[in-house]
Design a protein that fits this description.
Elements: E1 8-16, H1 19-25, H2 27-47, E2 51-52, E3 62-66, H3 69-85, E4 96-104, E5 106-108, E6 111-113, H4 115-125, E7 132-135, H5 136-142, E8 150-158, E9 167-174, H6 205-217, E10 220-224, H7 231-242, E11 250-254, H8 264-271, H9 282-290, E12 296-300, H10 306-319, E13 324-329, E14 339-342, H11 348-362, H12 370-382, H13 387-395, H14 402-419, H15 425-439, H16 443-452, H17 461-467, H18 472-484, E15 489-491, E16 494-496, H19 499-511, H20 515-530, H21 538-547, H22 549-562, H23 564-573, H24 575-580, H25 585-595, H26 603-618, H27 622-639, H28 642-658, H29 662-679, H30 682-698, H31 702-718, H32 726-738, H33 742-759, H34 765-777, H35 781-798, H36 804-820, H37 823-835, H38 838-846
Helix pairs in contact: 1-2, 2-3, 8-9, 9-10, 11-12, 11-13, 12-14, 13-15, 14-15, 16-18, 16-19, 17-18, 20-22, 20-23, 22-23, 22-25, 23-25, 23-26, 25-26, 26-27, 26-28, 27-28, 28-29, 28-30, 29-30, 30-31, 30-32, 31-32, 32-33, 32-34, 33-34, 33-38, 34-35, 34-36, 35-36, 35-37, 35-38
């Protein structure tokens, strides 16, 4: 121990996988195996100049230190190879996991102390058997000189338990024994929605330092550059490194999928988990959420909605004093106080390193000599150091030798430069890289690439199959080819195109005159999804539509100009989705856009009027809602469209009730009920019975209200739609409670909560209100206050504004609970409810 080294060292920590079970199963074999374990470790340390730190052993682990990172890595590789070759006793085959970290630690009495050991141990806890992990501190020492027949694999940044800053983790691969491991066991970060990078961040360390300084000196920093320059990647890298410098974290909003500038505030709100609130601009909701928070906000891909983005950014900066914004765009936002920073091209060394890193991801055994490196340098120079172009070039390496890549690039650049001298050089270079990559595709692959570029966001394989020509097997093959050639990215089971690649694909789509046809195919696919609701599977249907929301927005935007009849059909099919998932401004806006292009009296014009009016009501604008619904009703009657008449009557009943005209409300609803039964529309019958039950409750006719609400539930169950009865059950529980039947009230509210949880339905706040009242009446004051607070928070977050009569009823009963508890206990119960997430609140209520 006296000979242990000091200073900056590389620590190697290891332990056995599942050793306790092996000890229990075969203690004799395990004693023999551990003797062999110690022999292998001692021999490997001796061969690679490592020092065994016996005071660092715990159980079946061992700790060693090396003066050189190369020695430690070679030792770790030797250990894994020897453990794989060793003929272990039957039932006692040992497998180890190893981590390396370089840093300083104090040596006292033969034992090391310091954060370096803690960091090494935390990385080990994320490791799998047979795997070798290391931190960036060690990787930097090995990048140019890894052990023979090995390679370093970048696993990205990870949050590790008890460590404040994220760790950049690398894996040491044995090229003689290639192995794949599950994702390492990192901790989910609740203070950020930044994506974990899937590839290494190459170079630009000086630029990151410059950006940090600029961001400290101002509140808006815009990273500017052409498509493919690496704006998003460097912005996300900077935000990831600065996340813990902001108490409320770092958050990303992607504007790339938006086709309508008017949806920018909504996209920002959704990235923060906020919902619309009736009668309140969504921008005010965002400001209210951010005003007192200290966070870094990354707004990505502003260029196509630059004016709307600039307006919102200026508003946020003026009203949120602690907010810092990092934007990426192809042009400045033009906001006062904006600091702009243009992304420079990668330098020669970083360009070559990027090319090699991406090439080795596809060819781990790639060996590069001096001549090859010269060719790569020439390729990167021709690509002007633009990261996207370099990555596309590297992706061709399995199919083409380096010299062929170089010659093809040179010919393409010459042609492009000669044909278009007015375009900036880097854009010409990027277009040349894209043209070149496109021309390497087969004709079927080109067609399929153009087709999938129509998607605005992430898409699933069935979507690609639905819009593409040919059999599904061909779609799978072509999509796989596009993934392999880096034109499409596979992301958590779905697919996406980088924004620049998508824009290029759409230009090609326009050139061959296929854009409208592809938009129609997407519209048809989305219409099929929207009309595919199966009784009893509402949650699945809602989640399916949520996953294609970006494409729905883009398709409706296209349809408003190109085919408003088709757009209105799609909007009508989405009515239930928009209602349950808390959307209001989008459907109202789309309906109004399409109404401007639909002739009055056309079948879909009445549909648009009703849709716009219904969501005006949801937004808390009953006056506008009433005018539009009345107009829809008149047009539908004139056209003899009884389905449209039925929908308008149902909404007229809602609007009249909100206006306090109970007689008109019930008249409309009774006419709607008769019509629904005549048409055999049992789903509509259930909805109208629900509304009539509420109307009876408002008149104080509780037995009648319970009867009508129960009839509504019976109809839904008969249709197999019990999962759509949560709100009816909630109001039946309220009516039973007011009628003194607490047992029936509790039974109904329990079922309503289960459905609300399964659907992710934010209207479950009403169910929490009813249960809070029940607990108040049953003398459980603490539970009552916690439930009421959770319900109030959910109403606020979802934008639902309960009627005044509802609020008065809940408050009067919950007030009993507050008076029962002492002030401090009541405040604590209320605060606990306000802090609950949606899932926490419903699980608490159900329990």
């Amino acid at each position: 121990m006296a000979g242990l080294p000091q200073g900056t060292l590389t620590f190697m920590l290891s332990d056995l996988v599942a050793s306790t079970k092996t000890w229990e199963a075969t203690p004799v074999g395990m004693r023999d195996a551990m003797a062999r374990h110690d022999r292998i470790v001692a021999d490997a340390l001796r061969r690679h100049h490592g020092h065994d730190v016996r005071s660092g052993r715990a159980g079946d682990s061992f700790l060693a230190v090396s003066r050189r990172a190369q020695d430690a890595a070679a030792c770790a590789l030797t250990l894994q190879r020897e453990f794989a070759r060793e003929p272990w006793p039957a039932g006692a085959r040992l497998q180890i996991r190893i981590t390396l970290h370089t840093g300083e630690a104090q040596l006292r009495a033969g034992q090391y102390y310091g954060i370096a050991l803690a960091r090494c141990a935390r990385v080990l806890s994320a490791c799998h058997g047979g795997q070798i992990l290391m931190t960036a501190a060690t990787q930097q020492l090995l990048a140019d000189e890894p052990p023979p027949r090995s390679a370093l694999r970048d696993l990205g940044f990870h949050r590790l338990k008890d460590l404040e800053r994220p760790e950049h983790v690398y894996q040491l691969d044995d090229l003689d024994r290639p192995m794949e491991f599950p994702a390492i066991r990192s901790v989910l970060d609740a203070h950020s929605n930044l994506p974990i990078p899937l590839t290494a961040f190459i170079g630009r360390q000086d630029e990151l330092g410059e950006l940090r300084d600029l961001l400290e000196g101002g509140r808006l920093l815009s990273v500017i550059g052409p498509g493919g320059a690496g704006k998003t990647r460097i912005a996300l890298q900077l935000a990831s490194e600065l996340t813990h410098a902001y108490p409320d974290g770092a958050w990303l909003v992607e504007l790339g999928p938006l086709a309508d500038p008017g949806l920018v505030p909504l996209a920002v709100a959704e990235s923060l988990g906020l919902s619309e609130q009736p009668g309140r601009p969504i921008a005010d909701t965002v400001v209210g959420h951010l005003r007192a928070r200290r966070l870094l906000f990354v707004i990505d891909n502003c260029e196509h909605v630059v004016e709307a983005a600039a307006t919102l950014v200026a508003d946020l900066l003026a009203r949120c004093p602690h907010l810092r914004l990092l934007a990426t765009s192809r042009e400045p936002l033009g906001v006062p106080g904006e600091i702009t920073w243009r992304v420079p091209p990668l330098g020669e060394e970083a360009s070559v390193q990027l090319f090699l890193d991406r090439a080795r991801a596809r060819q781990p055994r790639l060996q590069v000599g001096d001549r090859d490196r010269t060719t790569i340098t020439r390729i990167c120079e021709r690509l002007d150091g633009i990261p996207l172009a370099i990555e596309l070039a590297a992706a061709r390496l399995p199919a083409l030798p380096l010299d062929e890549i170089s010659s093809r690039l040179e010919r393409r650049f010459t042609l492009l430069t000669l044909n278009d001298r007015t375009t900036p050089t880097r854009q010409r270079t990027l277009r040349a890289a894209m043209d070149w990559s496109y021309e390497l595709l087969t004709e079927p692959e080109k067609s399929f690439f153009r087709q999938v570029s129509i998607f605005s966001g992430r898409f699933a394989l069935p979507a690609a199959e639905a819009i593409g020509a040919g059999a599904s097997e061909e779609a799978v093959e072509r999509l796989g080819a596009l993934v392999q050639k880096s034109l499409v990215i596979m992301d958590d089971g779905r697919y996406r195109l980088l924004e620049t690649i998508r824009a290029y694909g759409r230009e090609r789509l326009d050139q061959v005159g296929e854009s409208d046809a592809m938009h129609r195919r997407v519209a048809g696919y989305l219409l099929g999804l929207a009309e595919s609701r199966v009784p009893g599977h509402l949650a699945e249907w809602l989640n399916t539509l949520e996953a294609v929301h970006d494409d729905t927005r883009a398709t409706l935007h296209w349809a408003a100009a190109a085919d408003p009849q088709l757009g209105m059909r799609l909007a009508l099919a989405l009515y239930r989705f928009w209602q349950l998932r808390g959307h209001a401004s989008e459907p109202r806006q789309f309906a109004q856009e399409m109404l401007e292009r639909l002739p009055a009296g056309s079948p879909m014009h009445a549909v648009g009027l009703h849709l716009a009016g219904a969501f005006a009501f949801v937004q808390g604008d009953p006056a506008t809602a009433g005018r539009m619904v009345d107009a829809a009703l008149q047009e539908a009657r004139q056209a003899g469209d009884l389905q449209a008449v039925l929908r308008a009557l149902d909404t007229r009943g809602l609007v009249s009730a909100a206006e306090g005209d109970v007689a008109r409300s019930e008249a409309a609803l009774k006419e709607a009920l008769t019509l629904a039964r005549e048409l055999g529309e049992r789903d509509a019958e259930a909805a109208v019975l629900h509304q009539l039950g509420l109307a009876a409750g408002r008149r104080g006719a509780l037995p009648e209200a319970r009867r009508l609400l129960a009839q509504s539930i019976d109809v839904k169950r008969a249709l197999g739609c019990a999962d759509e009865a949560s709100m009816t059950l909630t109001f039946l529980a309220q009516a039973s409670l007011l009628n003194g039947d607490l047992e029936d009230s509790r039974r109904c509210i329990a079922e309503a909560l289960q459905i609300g949880l399964a659907l992710g339905d934010r209207r479950a706040a009403f169910s929490l209100d009813v249960l809070a009242c029940l607990n108040a009446l049953e003398d459980h004051p603490e539970r009552s206050l916690t439930l009421a607070a959770a319900g109030a928070a959910m109403h606020d977050a979802s934008g639902n504004t309960p009627p005044e009569s509802w609020t008065v009823l809940v408050s009067s009963l919950v007030q009993r609970a507050r008076q029962t508890l002492e002030g401090q206990a009541a405040d604590a119960a209320w605060a606990a409810g306000r802090r609950m997430t949606f899932d926490e609140a419903l699980h608490f209520a159900i329990a």
